Amino acid sequence: MYELTRSNDPVFLSYLTSELAAEGIEALLLDTFGASALSSVNVTALGRVMVAEEDVGLAEAVLAEAEGRVSEDTILNGRVTLLQPTRGFRAAIDPVLLAASVPARNGDRILDVGTGSGAAALALLARTPWIWVTGIDIQADLVHLARLSARRNDAGERAQFNVVDIADAAAFQSAPYDHVMSNPPFLDQHSGQRPKDPARARATLESTADLATWIKYMAANVIDGGTLSVVHRYDRVDEILQHIAALRCGDVKILDLVSMDDGRPVKRVIVQATAGRPHADVQRFRMVLHTADGEFTDAASAILRDLACTPISE
Length: 314
Description:
This protein has 314 residues and is of the alpha/beta class.
């Protein structure tokens, strides 16, 4: 058995064990002086919550939510429940736009590389229900949150989340996926000041894997004719295209995500390529996200709230 936490707050202990039970996790409540279960807990007793070793990851996610370190949010106009840390890296609109760019059809298998708390994977499942998505990430705590979110969305049988370091040669698999998508770290290791929060640093700065490794991993795990879709910084598009061309991927589509149609520079972009295709001319698309008053445009709103797809997936 594994000691999940200890507390002398009977209300919190009761709440936590109830939340664990709701997720199918059997918890044992012990006092600190023996191994007998507490039939009742008073304010002076220090209780220990014990769970089975195989339930530790999911139980840690439940504990984080119970302690207020995790918030329960929604995306896609409430269609998807997403658990994510209250501090550190939190999903914005990028993963939702990425998911809406993948031309997935019912029956397809999709790999989400660098899934984080699972926003893109769960958004894609909401848009195309009869698919199977596997999300991988190096941060175990986020993977456990993604698993918990999948259960909250009744997607446990169609979504898998695993802890994987793509820089590990053993992490390379055959190519079983119809599509691969990714929202990788935007900055290389030498870019600017490192964020103080470790989770945010992992999400924004390349660590064990650089961009070349990231794209190579994606290409190694997609079937010929399948797509690779990545959302990234506009100023790294040329670098992405070079890596894609070197990996027998072509038919490239680029979607410039324009914040406002007022001449300001483009900061985000989605690049999509097809595996096993000769490198051909790049097709360029453009989508404005906000109106002059800061509201989402009709095109953006249709994607972020109403399950529409982006121009490159149509």
